[in-house]
Amino acid sequence: MYFKNIRNCVILLSLSLLLVECSKDEKINYKLDGQSAGGETTVFLSNSQAFGTPAPNLSPEHLEMHLEGDKAFEAIFVSSPAPTHGGLGPIFNNSSCNACHPSDARASVPTNINELSGFFFRISVEGTDEHGGPKPVPGFGTQLQHQSLFGYEPEAKMERKYQTKEIVLSDGLKVQLQRPAYSIIDPYIELPENVLISPRIGMPVFGLGLLESIPEKDIIANADEFDRDQDGVSGKPNYVWDAVTETVQLGRFGWKAGAANILAQSAGAYSGDMGLTTSIFPVESSYGQSNGNTENGIIEVSDDELNAVTFYCQTLGVPAARNLDKEQVIEGSKIFEKIGCAKCHIPSFITGNNPNIPEISNQKIYPYTDMLLHDMGEDLADNRTEYLASGTEWKTRPLWGVGLTNVTSGHTSFLHDGRARNIMEAILWHGGEAENSKNDFIELATEEREALLAFVNAL
Ligand code: HEC
Ligand code: HEC
């Protein structure tokens, strides 16, 4: 969100501070603690700006940096030559960060899969690259760019076909899940055989500085790769090549935790999603392809702009949880624990020290994720590995803000490709390590199920 003037912003900030003060007085039981989901970065808003508001505790200097970053996040890139924000493509998926993370939230699933949207395919062939990451498809790389500038050919088109899968809950409620199958059509050159496809949709970008600041040891403490406690839930860290530090690091971002930090994820987005070079990825993603760039070596996005957009994602505030004192919601929180949701969606962490951004340091947060990978079963599998993440493994999604999705985005699509049309469908797609949890959900009495959903919607 872009504030037209600082005054509005100050008014808003004072308002949220006031609300923070009130909520402090009202803290009467332990469950209410989770209301300040982002600690002091919490914004007490439940409208369409709930994901797109700066953390209220930013210093004036940091607020200014954040607002600069906001402009970078919204900047629409065009083809070169252009006085500003040129260099798009020539092949790409979309032309601004905001286009795929509208209102800093989740993109909607495109009706026509090939229109401009926040959805794309990551692709690769069997094997790994020199850093243990996905092996590029010759002539296509590791992401399918389905858009191109005038005079260029997109790499290919995507195809999606739905099949229905019916699940009957114990109280007789029938739910029709739509199971997508994906393929690639009309490639610009012959496509090698056995290309692996991982469909992905843009997710919310608030609260990410906090997730980046969780001490690694606190994440690892929850890992149980070989399920020694035999509860059916393991949880494993991804370790990925970080192009920023040129070292192997704990993966934290992306649906399979394939990126170690927000800077790498953002530089990767400029490169793969938009066809823009940065100091981190100076080579055009399409360089050497017959439909790609013939020139190379120009840095199209400056370090200043890259750092600004990164700072922006690091310092967006987290929306407060709502209704945590309602009886139904309290009941739902107990069921959430009882049926094992909290084994992966771990409620709370305390962030470590980030010397550059004290505002996000040492905060008690309620993201409801363990930041680890879990086998989610065949139904959700993309069958494509990403570093240590297998073809069935995905990172536990944070649940903070999920209940506001309809307000921020006008839809309620969830999961890595947006296939679930609401929270109940998202739960019913869970399998693998979450199979028991899902089955317990199916067995819930109607009121219990409604209580659980009320709790998730309160986050
Ligand atoms: C074409 C659509 C598209 C564009 C453009 C795009 N993104 Fe994304 N973004 C995605 C998708 C899809 C993912 C998930 C990627 C994955 O799982 O590997 C993602 C993931 C992210 C994440 C990780 C969030 C998390 O919780 O793990 C961040 C941060 C991010 N994008 C920031 C940006 C920034 C900054 C820009 C602009 C420089 C940008 N994105 C441009 C689609 C897009
Ligand atoms: C074994 C670990 C695990 C358990 C147990 C688990 N989840 Fe999840 N959850 C995940 C993972 C991993 C994802 C992301 C899957 C994907 O995108 O394909 C996810 C996604 C979700 C989403 C969608 C979020 C989004 O941003 O798209 C919701 C909602 C959710 N879980 C709720 C629940 C509830 C409620 C329970 C208990 C009934 C539960 N989960 C149990 C691991 C788990």
Automatic annotation (TrEMBL):
Pfam families from the UniProt entry: DHOR
UniProt keyword terms in alphabetical order: Heme, Iron, Metal-binding
Gene3D superfamilies in UniProt: Cytochrome c-like domain
GO molecular function: cytochrome-c peroxidase activity; electron transfer activity; heme binding; metal ion binding
Domain Cytochrome c: 327-459
PANTHER family: CYTOCHROME C DOMAIN-CONTAINING PROTEIN, CYTOCHROME C PEROXIDASE-RELATED
Name of the protein this chain belongs to: Cytochrome c domain-containing protein
Organism: Plebeiibacterium sediminum
